[in-house]
Amino acid sequence: MTARIGVVTFPGTLDDRDTQRAVRVAGAEAVPLWHRDKDLKQVDAVVLPGGFSYGDYLRAGAISRFSPVMEPVIEQAKAGMPVLGICNGFQVLTESHLLPGAMLRNNHLHFICRDQKLRVENADTSWTTDYETGQEISVPLKNIDGRYVADERVLDMLEAEGRVAFRYLDGNPNGSLRDIAGITNEAGNVVGLMPHPEHAVEPLVGTGRTDGLGFFTSILKKLVNA
Amino acid sequence: MARVVVDVMLKPEILDPQGQAVQRALPRLGFEGIADVRQGKRFELEVEGPVDDAALSRIQEMAETFLANTVIEDFTVRVDS
Amino acid sequence: MTLDTVKHAAETPDTDQPWAELGLKQDEYARIREILGRRPTGAELAMYSVMWSEHCSYKSSKVHLKQFGEKAPETDALLVGIGENAGVVDVGQGYAVTFKVESHNHPSYIEPYQGAATGVGGIVRDILAMGARPVAVMDPLRFGAADHPDTKRVLPGVVAGIGGYGNCLGLPNIGGEVVFDPCYQGNPLVNALCVGVMKHEDIHLAKASGAGNKVILYGARTGGDGIGGVSVLASETFDSTGPAKRPAVQVGDPFQEKLLIECTLEIFRENLVDGIQDLGGAGLSCATSELASAGSGGMRVELDTVPLRDSSLSPEEILMSESQERMCAIVEPGKVDRFLEICEKWDVIATVIGEVTEGSQLEIFWHGEQIVDVPPRSVAHEGPTYHRPYARPDWQDALQADDAAKLARPANAEELRAQVLRLVASPNQASKAWITDQYDRFVQGNTVLAQPEDSGMVRIDENTGLGVAVATDGNGRYAKLDPYAGAQLALAEAYRNVAASGAKPLAVSDCLNFGSPEDPAVMWQFAEATRGLADACQTLGTPVTGGNVSLYNQTGEVAIHPTPVVAVLGVIDDVTRRTPVAFADEGHLIYLLGDTREELGGSAWSQVVHDHLGGLPPKVDLAREQLLAEILISASRDGMIDAAHDLSDGGLIQALVESCLRGGKGARLVVPDGLDPFVLLFSESAGRAIVAVPRSEELRFTDMCGARGLPATRIGVVDGSDIDVQGQFSVALDELREAHEGTIPGLIA
């Protein structure tokens, strides 16, 4: 058997088809989910992909967070279902309060698209077991609202509990506090990050590296072995 | 220090996609009865010295040339008491 | 105000009408009266005025543009030619590709962000309307001097607008150009290109046929955007003191456009439309008249059913509105319900506004009263044609006689080194990463090559690896010196860029940016450039599939350099064979392909070092371009080269620096016997490329070049962390990188 991984499409989602491809490349079954769906079609995990859902109008992720599909996602995430939020998906997760903090406009105010080096700080989450803690990977970064902020107390808590999952290396691209590129919830099943692992799963396209594939193989192993 | 507020809004005839997206979301969240939403920007200026006509006219000029893009936006200047 | 109905117009022949204010000439107004046999209604006058404007009717340019059809080379690849929203090219395996480049110059000067954003939106809808999924965009841009204060206003706005719109649509931006020249001050050129992919059977055309079929308007509501924008903004020089009635700027909503794309593709998948047209310049006037004109002819529209954002709009304004993110479809009655259902799924407003009729007239009604009754062809296709006078300007001889060969050259190796650094740091030759990093090049997960590669390349089939490559090029300096040769050089460069990436060039789209057609000198430049381009397309076997003309790019008497921008589309059977520009492997041999002559007219060197423009541009040799392309494609397919970079502005040294910086490796160069080091480094002779050949492939590669008669000269080896020109100078990559990458952020950021 293989795992069924849901990929949600909100109006304005862009990376849904790429994420489905990444899921397939890893060997799992990609299940498209629509923002109006009220059930999750028995998927084993959910990815909220990148894009500009609702145009990022009001605040990035603020309108999508109230989509019908988010009710079961939030409920099941709290019950332990693995959820990965990439870029806009991460923003939806913070707006939903599944993850702490918020994303603001980049400190230089520009959209930035580049190959970004990261350090995996926590290789024990549902989505990172195929990496080593401390491993350096390169995946594309592309956003305009990517500056992670939270108050000092939250940041200290995240650090203390090992919940900073990824940190930017070789220069902070957007002013994120403590170079945070991605975080996890306490249980390790909900992970959000700004860079795009789904764009780094094939050697020829995107950055030409496959450093992002580990997200999808990690979750597949976890689900199949469960 | 006195505060002057500059409100910048898209001109009425200019499309406001952000306001529209918010307006369309409202009924889904159970907020009925809102016919239109337009989103703008508010600038709060802390002014050194007196807010007299000269100061206001400088702020007026600042708003016209810099804070607002008068090709697509209107603005208002008022003293916040 | 009373409604100006058809009946009312017939009864009041002597009513004064504002035809001049709407940009019509007296004889044009007289012709409208002749066509209709009465005076036009206000709504009809609005329609004719926008559709007969330069922008929509190509009235000054079409006598020249017809060469693209007359001289079109024989090819099986062209599935849809000039005249539709965009041409369609067969790329094999059942796939068809459509692409087009278009201008949005004047709006981008007035409001850089929205002007550039809506330029992207417009070209994407053109591609979508052909039945294709848009898969990539590119933006050839030209601005005034890099250090001019207005460039600091226009450039960041344009770049943010392109990024803000394109990124939000999920279209990778894979190439384009950024050029600075004082001639574009006040007249920036913002050209936008889109590529789309479909299966052969999915091609859709803009035609309304089948009486009883419904006309559905879907997408955004109609507001007062850009009313009169087409005729006023695009046809006359923008003057900051007037006109009194300033047209409202169009504002783009990329989120709405993204929904429109997905909604439309789903509608195509279920085969629900007979004909489709996007709404761009001239809005509903254009869409209804073009659909009807290309179909059986008759259409009836109830204009008061159009969903409005501003309920105070008059029928004339609704017809002229350029509100963005709208499409118009012709749908069989039995398919209307499903069509509307899909629109509802995507939160897209859709309204049946009329139907195709048995008749031959386009009839438009406002609350039951008829306000338009016209033969649609007379609006859409039978606009005026001008044979504008043209004459070779009297300054052309003096310009060509002002030979760049007489310019002072570097006196010694030290000066040569200093000029190399100056060149690669000059705004036109410097890295544009600050700009292109604001565009998403990864989205859709199929990008194989993107800027600063020679061409942008995307995979279109995941299983077979089929891909397409596109490059856009233009050199206004060359075209100013010789518009005929300049247009051919633009084509040759784009053709070479596509081949250097390993793809076979198939077809051309062009955006012809010129000054006022009312100036005989400008008109001569235009005539020469179109003739040059048509001739070269014929020779190279790459038909022009469509494009756009932008005139009146001038301030007062001063026109921009004639700037034909040429896009070439190529196909590659297997993207794993693509050739990047990076010299990444030490020990690979560097070969220079082609002949290097002393050609400095219009060169980057003459501009950067001497601020000079004179003489003749490099010689055009299309047979050589073809041979070079064949060699580059064969070498890529057979794995004989690991990198290739075309030589163009900035010459060999520019290409070498780019390839070395991209690969992070240096190079040792030996000046071949009989060549002057300065000429080797800075000449811009066309028909050349540099390639990196693994030693194991050297013999095979040189044998192939020898057998086919292409000069191939070994000029060095990839090695170390400096560029070392033997006996001349050495410069560290780090120093080059700092010079090359620091300029644009320093000027603009």
Automatic annotation (TrEMBL), chain A:
Q: Does the keyword Transport apply?
A: no
Q: What is its main location?
A: cytoplasm
Q: So what EC number does this one have?
A: 6.3.5.3, 3.5.1.2
Query: What are the annotated GO cellular component locations?
Result: cytoplasm
What reaction(s) does this enzyme catalyze?
L-glutamine + H2O = L-glutamate + NH4(+); N(2)-formyl-N(1)-(5-phospho-beta-D-ribosyl)glycinamide + L-glutamine + ATP + H2O = 2-formamido-N(1)-(5-O-phospho-beta-D-ribosyl)acetamidine + L-glutamate + ADP + phosphate + H(+)
What are this entry's molecular-function GO terms? ATP binding; glutaminase activity; phosphoribosylformylglycinamidine synthase activity
Name the active site residues.
Answer: 87 (nucleophile), 196, 198
Q: Which pathway does the record list?
A: Purine metabolism; IMP biosynthesis via de novo pathway; 5-amino-1-(5-phospho-D-ribosyl)imidazole from N(2)-formyl-N(1)-(5-phospho-D-ribosyl)glycinamide: step 1/2
Q: Which Gene3D superfamilies match?
A: 3.40.50.880
Assigned keywords, A-Z? ATP-binding, Cytoplasm, Glutamine amidotransferase, Hydrolase, Ligase, Nucleotide-binding, Purine biosynthesis
From the UniProt record, give one GO term of the biological process aspect: 'de novo' IMP biosynthetic process
The listed locations are:
Cytoplasm
Which SMART domains does this chain map to? Answer: GATase_5
> The organism sits in which domain of life?
Bacteria
Annotated protein name in UniProt: Phosphoribosylformylglycinamidine synthase subunit PurQ
Species for this entry: Streptomyces piniterrae
What gene, per UniProt, encodes this protein? purQ
TrEMBL record, chain B:
Any single GO BP term:
'de novo' IMP biosynthetic process
**Where, per UniProt, does this protein localize?**
Cytoplasm
**GO function terms (MF aspect):** ATP binding; phosphoribosylformylglycinamidine synthase activity
Reported EC number(s) for this entry are 6.3.5.3
Q: Which GO terms describe its cellular component?
A: cytoplasm
Task: Show the catalytic activity.
Answer: N(2)-formyl-N(1)-(5-phospho-beta-D-ribosyl)glycinamide + L-glutamine + ATP + H2O = 2-formamido-N(1)-(5-O-phospho-beta-D-ribosyl)acetamidine + L-glutamate + ADP + phosphate + H(+)
List UniProt keywords, sorted A-Z: ATP-binding, Cytoplasm, Ligase, Nucleotide-binding, Purine biosynthesis
Signal sequence range: none
> What pathway, per the record?
Purine metabolism; IMP biosynthesis via de novo pathway; 5-amino-1-(5-phospho-D-ribosyl)imidazole from N(2)-formyl-N(1)-(5-phospho-D-ribosyl)glycinamide: step 1/2
Q: Which HAMAP family match?
A: PurS
* NCBIfam families linked: phosphoribosylformylglycinamidine synthase subunit PurS, PRK05974.1
Regarding protein family, the annotation reads: Belongs to the PurS family.
Q: How does it assemble?
A: Part of the FGAM synthase complex composed of 1 PurL, 1 PurQ and 2 PurS subunits.
Q: What does this protein do?
A: Part of the phosphoribosylformylglycinamidine synthase complex involved in the purines biosynthetic pathway. Catalyzes the ATP-dependent conversion of formylglycinamide ribonucleotide (FGAR) and glutamine to yield formylglycinamidine ribonucleotide (FGAM) and glutamate. The FGAM synthase complex is composed of three subunits. PurQ produces an ammonia molecule by converting glutamine to glutamate. PurL transfers the ammonia molecule to FGAR to form FGAM in an ATP-dependent manner.
UniProt xrefs under PANTHER family: PHOSPHORIBOSYLFORMYLGLYCINAMIDINE SYNTHASE SUBUNIT PURS
The name this protein goes by in its record:
Phosphoribosylformylglycinamidine synthase subunit PurS
Write down the species.
Streptomyces piniterrae
Automatic annotation (TrEMBL), chain C:
Q: Name one GO cellular component term.
A: cytoplasm
- From the UniProt record, give the pathway where this protein acts: Purine metabolism; IMP biosynthesis via de novo pathway; 5-amino-1-(5-phospho-D-ribosyl)imidazole from N(2)-formyl-N(1)-(5-phospho-D-ribosyl)glycinamide: step 1/2
Binding locations of substrate: 103-106, 125, 250, 322-324, 550
Residues in domain Phosphoribosylformylglycinamidine synthase linker? Answer: 20-59
Specify the PurM-like C-terminal domain's residue ranges.
Answer: 211-366, 586-722
Identify which residues the record assigns to the active site.
55, 104
Which keywords does UniProt give here?
ATP-binding, Cytoplasm, Ligase, Magnesium, Metal-binding, Nucleotide-binding, Purine biosynthesis
Q: What is its main location?
A: cytoplasm
Binding residues for ATP:
58, 100, 510, 547
GO biological process terms, alphabetically, are: 'de novo' IMP biosynthetic process
* Segments forming domain PurM-like N-terminal: 83-198, 453-572
Q: Which GO terms describe its molecular function?
A: ATP binding; magnesium ion binding; phosphoribosylformylglycinamidine synthase activity
Residues binding Mg(2+) 2, per UniProt:
126, 278
Record's Pfam families?
A: AIRS (PF00586), AIRS_C (PF02769), FGAR-AT_linker (PF18072)
Described purpose of this protein according to its UniProt entry:
Part of the phosphoribosylformylglycinamidine synthase complex involved in the purines biosynthetic pathway. Catalyzes the ATP-dependent conversion of formylglycinamide ribonucleotide (FGAR) and glutamine to yield formylglycinamidine ribonucleotide (FGAM) and glutamate. The FGAM synthase complex is composed of three subunits. PurQ produces an ammonia molecule by converting glutamine to glutamate. PurL transfers the ammonia molecule to FGAR to form FGAM in an ATP-dependent manner.
- Protein family per UniProt: Belongs to the FGAMS family.
Quaternary assembly = Monomer. Part of the FGAM synthase complex composed of 1 PurL, 1 PurQ and 2 PurS subunits.
List the protein's name: Phosphoribosylformylglycinamidine synthase subunit PurL
Organism in which the protein naturally occurs: Streptomyces piniterrae
Q: Which gene encodes it?
A: purL
